[in-house]
Write a structure and sequence with these properties.
The chain is an alpha/beta fold. Strand 18 and strand 19 form a beta hairpin. About 40% of the residues lie in helices and about 15% in strands. It has 2 domains: about 220 residues, 3-Layer(aba) Sandwich (Rossmann fold), CATH 3.40.50.10260; about 260 residues, Ribokinase (UDP-N-acetylmuramoyl-L-alanine:D-glutamate ligase).
Length: about 500
């Protein structure tokens, strides 16, 4: 799996290269420029005679851009450099490379941000534009003049390549204040950057490519943040040819209410499509007639006067948990106070692998969490969407989405459990290791897809995966199934569309 770093971590890695190996910043800049040019040739074909215009800031990201200009000239391209910023504040390495460009006679101009019409005419002549303005160090607001420049570049519609991180995107959080370069391609130097994977930054980054700068692998050994790729499916447990339904686990799904009948059914089917041997769906007895006779084992449970599961449901549920391998609680459950109390008591009596989804998350008060041993919470994987996570941390969804990585990691670390923070992209973490998903699309933004995910993770737990592994495989496969559906159109995807595609992904 690819390691993913923040901008600050990348700067520390570069510092290690200088201190431990004696690699100078100039050499790193030269390596970066060489790799960028290799990618430009790979993605856009021969560069000879192409007009490639480079927006270069005053830091080392701009210095990378200057190296690119020099190497492009030597390959027969027609580079032009626009310097943006105060030359008095340029880095030493930037100054060295700028002097070389001037000696070579490359067209270098200091961009006058107050004369955008002139810049627009010149940039419009480019075959390709390279954004080397800020890179990983950018955190602040662009300011009106720079924002206007970036909007101008975006409006031109020319192919745009960003170096490391599109200018205007926070390299750590992916957040954008007002505007950012909307790149077709972002060349991540050394390692993938978090800001290029988290929305809205991901939308501005376009296609992400990582190039090697020659860092030894141990330079990133203390970073435990990864991008989930196809290799995630290698975690799937083997299927022995002599296995039977008991071999592949029995999952209990507890959920349903008068309003939400389909949710526990979707979870139950997802258990089966996820390779689970059996699934029992425990629902209020009043809604059992609304289930059709098929592969699901539907168990009617005593409900309260309002048709919800409650404290009088406990004896049957505890009995059903005997000989089960995993528990999924929450799909369609409802939020009646008596139901939430039932969830808490059920969790006190069950210490096995558990998925907590939807309304079951309302049971996770601080008082309740503190009442349970760490060893029990480590068996849990919770699957909140941003609104549910906001409620858990007493915040709001916008703040959760603004710092998805930190929110998920902090909550997992605080309570010693596993978190799947759903969204674009989903984050999976146990507080120590963190994974960013690479699959999925906007078609998943529809009712019921979370119920499918909960059941799928439950199936993987029942087959023997550890909670963090089950979360990674489940989220990746769930998104990959949605991507298969999207080949016929993501708009209008419904949750049940995912079920048959899961079989293809997990085969």
């Amino acid at each position: 799996m690819q390691v993913v770093v923040t901008g600050q971590e990348m700067q520390l890695i570069e510092g290690q290269a200088r201190e431990r190996l004696g690699v100078s910043p100039l050499l790193l800049m030269e390596n970066a420029g060489s790799r960028i040019v290799e990618v430009l040739k790979q993605e856009y074909g021969p560069v000879q005679n192409k007009r490639i215009h480079i927006l270069a800031g005053m830091g080392n990201n701009g210095g990378d851009g200057l190296v690119v200009a020099r190497q492009l000239l030597l390959l027969g391209a027609r580079p032009k450099v626009y310097l943006v910023g105060n030359l008095q504040k340029s880095s030493p390495e930037h100054k060295v490379n700028l002097e070389i460009l001037r000696k070579l006679g490359i067209d270098v101009i200091h961009a006058e941000l107050g004369q955008l019409a002139k810049l627009k005419f010149s940039l419009n002549l480019a075959d390709l534009i390279v954004d080397a303005l800020f890179g990983t160090g950018f955190k602040a607001n662009l300011g009106p003049e720079l924002a206007a420049l970036i909007n101008l570049v975006n409006d031109l519609g020319q192919p745009l390549v960003a170096v490391d991180v599109p200018s205007g995107v926070n390299a750590c959080t992916g957040q954008v204040e007002h505007t950012a370069c909307r790149a077709d391609l972002t060349i991540n130097l050394g390692f993938l950057k978090t800001g290029c994977l988290l929305h809205p930054g991901q939308a501005y980054a376009g296609k992400n490519i990582v190039v090697d700068l020659g860092f030894p692998l141990d330079f990133s050994s203390n970073i435990h943040r990864y991008l989930l790729g196809q290799e995630t499916l290698d975690l799937l447990p083997p299927r022995v040819p002599w296995g039977h339904k008991g071999t592949f686990g029995h999952t209990l799904v507890v959920g349903g209410s008068q309003v939400y009948v389909g949710a526990p059914a979707l979870s139950g089917y997802a258990v089966l499509r996820g390779g689970g041997g059996m699934t029992t769906v425990a629902v209020p007895q009043g809604i059992v007639p609304r289930f059709q006779a098929d592969e699901l084992i539907v168990s009617p449970i005593a409900d309260n006067s309002e048709g919800n599961l409650g404290v009088n449901s406990l004896p049957q549920l505890v009995k059903l948990l005997e000989h089960k391998d995993a528990l999924v609680v929450g799909p369609g459950l409802g939020s009646h106070p008596e139901t939430i109390s039932m969830v808490q008591e059920l969790l006190r009596r069950w210490s096995g692998p558990t998925v907590l989804d939807a309304d079951a998350l309302k049971a996770l008060t601080e008082e309740f969490l503190n009442s349970l041993p760490d060893s029990q919470r480590r068996q849990w994987i919770i699957t909140p969407h941003p609104g549910e996570m906001a409620r858990l941390i007493r915040s709001d969804a916008s703040r959760v989405n603004a710092n998805r990585l930190a929110v998920a990691v902090d909550f997992a670390k605080k309570w010693g459990l596993n978190v799947v923070l759903k969204g674009a992209p989903s984050i999976i973490t146990d507080g120590e290791k963190t994974y960013i998903n690479s699959t999925g699309n906007h078609g998943l933004a529809t009712a019921g897809t979370g119920d499918v995910l909960a059941g799928l993770i439950g199936a993987l737990l029942a087959q023997g995966l550890q909670p963090l592994e089950a979360g990674c495989v489940g989220v990746y496969a769930h998104g990959a199934a949605a991507d298969l559906v999207a080949r016929q159109g993501a708009r209008g995807l419904i949750a049940s569309d995912l079920l048959n595609k899961l079989r293809e992904i997990l085969s």
